[in-house]
Write a structure and sequence with these properties.
One of its GO terms (molecular function) is metal ion binding. This protein has 257 residues and is of the alpha/beta class. It has one domain: Uracil-DNA glycosylase-like domain (Uracil-DNA Glycosylase, subunit E, 3-Layer(aba) Sandwich), CATH 3.40.470. The chain has nine helices and five strands; from the N terminus they run αααβααβαβαββαα. The chain has helices spanning 13-17, 24-30, 38-50, 87-90, 98-109, 147-164, 176-188, 227-231, 237-250, and strands at residues 75-79, 130-134, 170-174, 205-208, 217-222. Strands 2-1-3-5-4 form a five-stranded mixed sheet, sandwiched between helices. A hairpin with an 8-residue loop joins strand 4 (205-208) and strand 5 (217-222). The N and C termini lie far apart (56 Å). Bound molecules: iron/sulfur cluster.
């Protein structure tokens, strides 16, 4: 019914609520209310009930995890989704798991994070010129959201990038899932992704133009700093450092040598 507030449980909630967010702080406030994906709602809350032994004293966040970083960031970093005992516990993206440890360490090394480690929402971490977010905002079982869940969540990321648009110059995309997810997001937010669609690879760069007259945005692919990728050395800390540095350079952010 016109004028009725959309239910947070409706599959169409993100599509109806995201465009109404007039700023990133408004978006960050509404995302955690979302319950549009029943399987993910159940999983995130189940993880919070069962907990991991090391975190048994924690009260888990157990809600969608919004992006983190300044609203005028020229650089964005897009990952897959929060981890059940990482972001789903701490309430901040990439915070509280080995992937986040590697990412924030890389950001700190080049001067884009105020601290080398992120541990919880009130740890004092500040990001400089970079905003971190994800293609899917709830922790999925086995770190694998379904295609339908990815698509349901898409409007949140589309609105986030749209709001970042005036300053956004580069996006570091961590992992093939986020790379695939991002192309329709960019199209939905008004950009023109390259055709044919470039295949994901570590170090791949692709330019996304803005037919509205805005500046181009450069995508930089990077392997996801998952436990498996780091353990097998598919991705080393130096490789992660380099891809983040490349994004910062393209975004014209001052970085530490
Ligand atoms: S994954 Fe996205 S759309 Fe689905 S419940 Fe979480 S925030 Fe909502």
């Amino acid at each position: 019914m016109p004028g009725r507030r959309p239910s947070a449980q409706a599959p169409g909630f993100p599509a109806r609520a995201a465009p109404g967010a007039g700023s990133l702080s408004e978006l960050d406030a509404v995302v955690p209310a979302c319950r549009a994906c029943p399987r993910l709602v159940e999983w995130r809350e189940e993880a919070a009930r069962v907990k991991r032994r090391a975190f048994r004293d924690w009260e888990y966040w157990a809600r969608p995890v919004p992006g983190f970083g300044p609203a005028d960031a020229p650089l964005a970093i897009v990952g897959l989704a929060p981890a059940a005992h990482g972001g789903n516990r701490t309430g901040r993206i990439f915070t509280g798991d080995p992937s986040g440890d590697a990412l924030y360490a890389a950001l700190f090394e080049i001067g884009l994070a105020s601290q080398p480690r992120a541990t919880h929402r009130d740890d004092g971490m500040a990001l400089h010129g970079v905003r971190i977010t994800a293609a899917v905002h709830c922790a999925p079982p086995a770190n694998r959201p379904t295609t339908a869940e990815r698509d349901t969540c898409r409007p949140w990321l589309a609105r986030e990038l749209e709001l970042l648009g005036p300053t956004l110059r580069a996006i570091v995309v961590l992992g093939g899932f986020a790379w695939q997810a991002l192309m329709p997001v960019l199209a939905g937010a008004g950009w023109r992704p390259p055709r044919p669609r470039p295949a994901f690879g570590h170090g791949t760069e692709a330019l996304v133009s803005d037919p509205r007259g805005g500046r181009d945005v450069c995508l930089i692919g990077g392997y996801h700093p998952s436990r498996r990728n780091m353990f097998t050395r598919t991705l080393t800390p130096a490789m992660l450092h380099d891809v983040v540095r490349r994004g910062a350079e393209i975004a014209e952010l001052p970085v530490r040598p």
